[in-house]
């Protein structure tokens, strides 16, 4: 009987229909475009002679700046996976190997893997973020949780 | 207790291996504070941030250290705070504009020298320069670098306007039979454009108060409150009549037929107020499944070719459908867009206090 109940639960998740029309779809499309354009500009910025003033770099930053304002004006929310790839101080689109450095550090004396910390730091030297990844390796963001979908 | 011990053993093993890797690469300094104090498992794309700052900034920092004057340090801090993305962009634009003017003067001297040689032979001057080999031309941003952005923008605007159904592949329409474009509500399309993003659009200037920006085409790189920043191709003739003074057809391979400004190209600022713009959205795809707008935008369009499907949206702009070319033509009035692009999110086109109409 235990197996049967599990099976029925799974079926319930599958049966839920996605919403037919998304409200504020235009603004979601716009933010998506701005994000993609900023990545394209950040990738095409010259890496050999890293000028902080090169045009592509500046453009990618200003697109992200625009994106943040569109989100504020349209009263929509970005998912944290997108927010974490953007510098909060200089609006740079963070790409490891180009804009930012990604490291795992451990400050504890015993060097236990529980205390592993992932640090992402931007080249502007004003922004640094720590993620304690050692505590829970199977951690999921709240929005990625499957149980959030409404039943029926 | 067991768990703690195993953890420590594992971590030590990992740390030793990572340090070996770092030594083999020989990239990192031994005096790196991170490496000394903490053990590092792995690094992805570590960048030395000092390499990203120019020498002027470093000298400023040294001067700041030498002077312990509080007011001086506060001044520099305020100046650094003012280095937003926006102010940096403005600074960059003014620098490149002045650089472009220098390049125009350089071309002027080159032209003068070659003209003298031809006058001795009593021939008409002719020349074709390789512009990219002239020193200083690499600094000017090029139109061709931003074509990918334009392709991305097209897929965005098609998704926004919701005209996927009308897209055709391999010369055949997606739907069977003819499509009634008159059923498409053009008013709705124009209303959606009021909150659209124009970064990456290939715009053409039809009317303008500034004569030097009429018939310019270029890709919009950034939208300011009252100006469009556009990247303009090199060697692009602005006017339709390609006839010289003698009435013969102009030789487009001869650089003497271009003005110096047309040869240089680069960045241009176009005022929104008092000007009308036009852009095309293709309903057609290439062999590579990509949109081919470049030929559409840069060709000189015959007005008689288009089907005039709507006159309703004349106060906001106009939409036309070209049956032979399978594309939609949009005409926008610049003064309606006279807002910051982020402020246009929740606003609609104004229909009152109209100064200019599309006819
Ligand atoms: Zn930053």
From TrEMBL, chain A:
The keyword Metal-binding applies. It comes from the Eukaryota. It holds the Pfam family Rpr2. One of its GO terms (cellular component) is nucleolar ribonuclease P complex. One of its GO terms (biological process) is tRNA processing. Keywords: Metal-binding, tRNA processing, Zinc. One of its GO terms (molecular function) is metal ion binding. Belongs to the eukaryotic/archaeal RNase P protein component 4 family. This is Rpr2-domain-containing protein. It comes from Ascoidea rubescens DSM 1968.
Automatic annotation (TrEMBL), chain B:
It is found in: Nucleus. GO terms for biological process: rRNA processing; tRNA 5'-leader removal. It holds the Pfam family RNase_P-MRP_p29. GO terms for molecular function: ribonuclease P RNA binding. GO terms for cellular component: nucleus; ribonuclease MRP complex; ribonuclease P complex. Residues 7-20 have a biased composition (Low complexity). Residues 1-33, 56-84 are annotated as: Disordered. Belongs to the eukaryotic/archaeal RNase P protein component 1 family. This is RNase P/MRP, p29 subunit. It comes from Ascoidea rubescens DSM 1968.
């Amino acid at each position: 009987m235990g197996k049967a109940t599990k099976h029925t639960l799974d079926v319930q998740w599958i049966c839920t229909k996605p919403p037919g029309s998304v409200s504020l779809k235009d603004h979601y499309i716009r933010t998506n475009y701005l994000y993609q354009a900023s990545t394209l500009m950040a990738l095409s910025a010259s890496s050999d002679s890293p000028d902080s003033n090169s045009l592509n770099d500046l453009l990618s930053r200003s697109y992200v700046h625009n994106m943040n304002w569109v989100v504020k004006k349209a009263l929509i929310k970005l998912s944290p996976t997108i927010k974490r790839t953007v510098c909060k101080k200089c609006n740079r689109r963070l790409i490891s190997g180009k804009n930012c450095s990604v490291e795992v550090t451990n400050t504890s004396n015993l060097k236990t893997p529980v205390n592993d910390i992932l640090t992402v730091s931007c080249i502007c030297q004003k922004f640094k973020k720590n993620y304690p990844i050692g505590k829970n390796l199977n951690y999921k963001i709240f929005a990625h949780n499957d149980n959030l979908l409404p039943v029926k | 207790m067991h768990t703690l011990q195993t953890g420590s053993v594992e971590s030590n093993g990992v740390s030793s291996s990572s340090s070996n890797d770092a030594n083999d690469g020989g990239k990192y300094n031994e005096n790196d504070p991170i490496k000394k104090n903490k053990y590092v498992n792995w690094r992805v794309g570590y960048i030395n941030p000092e390499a990203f700052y120019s020498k002027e900034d470093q000298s400023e920092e040294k001067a700041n250290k030498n002077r312990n004057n509080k007011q001086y340090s506060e001044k520099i801090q305020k100046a650094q705070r003012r280095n937003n993305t926006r102010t940096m962009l403005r600074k960059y634009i003014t620098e490149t504009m002045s650089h472009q003017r220098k390049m125009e003067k350089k071309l002027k001297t080159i032209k003068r020298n070659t003209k003298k040689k031809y006058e001795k032979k009593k021939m008409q001057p002719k020349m074709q320069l390789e512009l990219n080999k002239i020193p200083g031309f690499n600094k000017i941003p090029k139109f061709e670098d931003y074509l990918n952005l334009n392709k991305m923008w097209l897929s965005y605007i098609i998704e926004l306007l919701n005209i996927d159904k009308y897209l055709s592949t391999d010369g055949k329409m997606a739907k069977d039979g003819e499509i009634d474009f008159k059923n498409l509500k053009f008013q709705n399309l124009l209303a959606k454009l009021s909150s659209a993003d124009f970064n990456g659009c290939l715009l053409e200037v039809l009317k303008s108060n500034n004569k030097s920006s009429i018939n310019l085409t270029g890709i919009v790189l950034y939208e300011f409150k009252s100006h469009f920043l556009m990247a303009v191709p090199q060697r692009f003739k602005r006017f339709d009549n390609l006839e010289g003074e003698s009435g013969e057809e102009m030789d487009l391979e001869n650089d003497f037929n271009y003005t110096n400004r047309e040869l240089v190209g680069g960045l241009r600022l176009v005022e929104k107020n008092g000007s009308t713009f036009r852009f095309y959205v293709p309903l057609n795809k290439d062999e590579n499944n990509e949109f081919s707008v470049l030929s559409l935008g840069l060709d000189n369009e015959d007005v008689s070719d288009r089907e005039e499907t709507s006159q309703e949206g004349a106060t906001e702009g106009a939409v036309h459908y070209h049956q032979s070319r399978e594309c939609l033509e949009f005409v926008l009035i610049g003064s309606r867009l006279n807002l910051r692009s982020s402020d246009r999110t929740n606003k609609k086109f104004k229909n009152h206090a109209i100064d200019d109409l599309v006819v």
